[in-house]
Design goal:
This protein has about 425 residues and is α+β, with helices and mostly antiparallel strands. The chain is globular, with a radius of gyration of 23 Å. Helix content is about 35%, strand content about 15%. It contains twelve helices and 16 strands. Strands 4-3-2-1-5-6 form a six-stranded mixed beta sheet. It has a three-stranded antiparallel beta sheet with strand order 7-8-11. The two termini are about 25 Å apart.
């Protein structure tokens, strides 16, 4: 069982959620809200379902990631009601709830029916969740303005949420160390994945996202999704982007390791680590997150110049002419919470120079986010650049040597504090 202080923080968290939701509901004209946990859809033409992890607002309240066909009913001034789907079923086991204090804050009911519960005097009712699960339930389904308001309730994390995110980081770091050890021992991508799962004691299906484990050139595919089962002939690099889900909350950590004899690539990894830590140092209330992204491009330009990968251009010109975007094509990070890419990060469209940025807000205390700069050798981005007039500034021979290493990404999870930031990842080392 989690420590007593965490369980106490959860009670405070629920009290805060009650207040936030009551305000959001009142502002949107509702005095009753029914939230569906959701259920895993079945694969087309099959009788097997996809794995299920739950709908964000339901997890925000309960943390019950694997509970399907459950419902949460909220009303101002009333105890929340949770209906847990617990059928009499000889095919599958029902999950069990550990006895914890948070359950006393709810009216918890069990039901064998997967459909929506009958509500007593629902009044002005909103119903939110997967439309396929809502059916013909009375009330307003997924009203857009209310959904936006509820997304905002997740922007500023409570002390309980930050404690859960910190623990998710702590557990993931054990897995990252095991993955690094497996890489050094010559394991395949599949073997490294098994080492990570064994160390974290979490199945791949229950992790917050499919772990990215890329050896050599595979590290140059940003969301590389396959695992080779055979070791590489020459292990040049490992990029692992993997997290843990703890009580519904996600960690999202990336580390890159150079293989034996890869001194040039190892120097780039070290330089990227230095840049990443400088960017983490920028995280503080009042800072525009887009400014951190732009500072990352300036840092990448300086790294390209110092390494000799690009010559004959100053750092500003590299950024302005799009060279840095060929080496660092994604955004600097995103919000983090019960979803890996948590909600409400983009109240306005991202700027033209950062089309893939998932967060473009000014930072405030209580926000939790990632900082993840990268430097990649991606043929589909570099080949057109080499063939363009700008190609004369790139060292084609050096790029050819480094392509087999794929790329570098270093990612930490940070909580914005009143005076700066708490690095939830570095607090646990690695």
């Amino acid at each position: 069982m989690p420590e007593t202080s965490l369980l106490s923080l959860q009670l405070d968290h629920l009290s805060e959620l009650q207040s936030r939701y009551e305000v959001a509901m009142a502002e949107q004209g509702y005095d009753s809200l029914l939230i569906a946990s959701g259920a895993a859809p079945y694969r087309y033409g099959d009788d097997q379902a996809w794995h299920f992890q739950g709908y964000g607002p339901f997890l925000h309240w309960t943390g019950l990631t694997g509970w399907e066909h459950c419902w949460l009913w909220l009303r101002p001034g009333c105890r929340p009601v949770v209906w847990l789907y617990e059928p009499v079923d000889f095919w599958h086991a029902n999950p069990t709830l550990p006895e914890e204090p948070w359950q006393q804050a709810f009216d918890i009911r069990s039901r064998a029916d997967a459909g929506a519960p009958a509500l007593e005097n629902p009044s002005r009712l909103a119903v939110i969740g997967d439309p396929d699960e809502l059916g013909d339930i009375s009330g307003d389904h997924n009203p857009a303005a209310l959904l936006r308001a509820l997304d905002e309730t997740r922007v500023h994390k409570t002390a309980y949420e930050i404690a859960c995110l910190a623990e998710a980081n702590k557990q993931a770091l054990v897995g990252h160390q095991a993955a690094r050890d497996a890489f050094v021992e010559g394991e395949s991508e599949f073997g490294i994945s098994l080492a990570y799962q064994q160390a974290t004691r979490q199945r791949e299906a229950d992790a917050p996202y499919h772990s990215i484990i890329g050896l050599n050139e595979h590290a140059g595919t940003l969301h590389y999704q396959y695992y080779d089962t055979r070791p590489t002939g020459r292990p040049r690099s490992l990029l692992i982007d993997a997290g843990v889900r703890y009580r519904g909350y996600c960690s999202d950590i990336t580390r890159t390791t150079a293989g034996p004899g890869e001194s040039r690539f190892a120097a780039l990894v070290h330089a990227m680590e230095t840049l990443q830590q400088r960017l983490c140092g920028m995280v503080a209330p009042g800072v525009d997150y887009v400014d951190i992204h732009r500072k990352a491009h300036q840092g990448v330009a300086a790294l390209l110049s110092a390494s000799g990968l690009v010559t004959g251009l100053d750092d500003s010109a590299m950024v302005e002419q799009g060279i840095t975007r060929a080496f660092f094509p994604h955004g600097i990070g995103h919000f983090l919470g019960v979803q890996v890419h948590d909600v409400a990060g983009k109240p306005t469209p991202p700027p033209d120079d950062a089309p893939f940025l998932r967060l473009n807000r000014r930072l405030e205390s209580g926000m939790v986010l990632t900082i993840e700069p990268g430097l990649y050798f991606i043929p589909s981005l570099l080949d057109p650049l080499l063939a363009s007039p700008l190609g004369r500034h790139l060292d084609a021979g050096l790029l050819a040597e480094l392509r087999g290493c794929g790329g570098i990404r270093i990612e930490d999870n940070l909580a914005v504090t009143e005076s700066g930031a708490q690095n939830l990842t570095r607090n646990g080392a690695v």
